[in-house]
Amino acid sequence: MWNSLEVAKLVISFLTPAVIAILGIYIHRITKRFEDNQWRDQKLIEKRLAIYDDLAPQFNDLLCYFTYVGRWKELSPIDVVALKREIDRKMYLAAPLFPKQFFHACQALQGLCFKTFSDWGVDAQLRTNWLRRKEANPGWLVDWERYYTSADEVTDPAKVKAAYGHVMQEFAGSIGVTADHSHVATGRLPRDIR
Question: Would the pTM count as exceeding 0.85?
Fold first, then answer.
């Protein structure tokens, strides 16, 4: 007859391979899930980098235009309004791939640069002074003045510069740059802005 010790040994000998198999399947599933998450995160970072490569130069053009540095003289108000539309389209398309802080930073920069929804069918207006632009552009068209807000709605270029820096910080954080990115080089503002 079988005693209880022999029965226990027999049961353990059958259960041991089953437990090891179940544990192996469990570990395999966890490893596979980890690999899948790692792959997804890598693809997300790659997509965010592609969006950065596309959007960052356009944000830089806004910075240049509204702070009178770089290639600001090369852009007409029509170009800048078209740039706003393009940035908006790309920003809204990319929004699901970025943290909401990035999207809000982009909206804040756009809000400092443009007055929107002033009337049905009216283009966004630029929150910057047109007088200096007229002085610097020999091909200035009088019709361009309608693209600008009144003097009391002009945004201080230092605020635009700070908002741009915040957008770039959010970009860096969203692609995993965790080093100190609290300072984004944006250059100096000209002293004689009116």
Answer: no
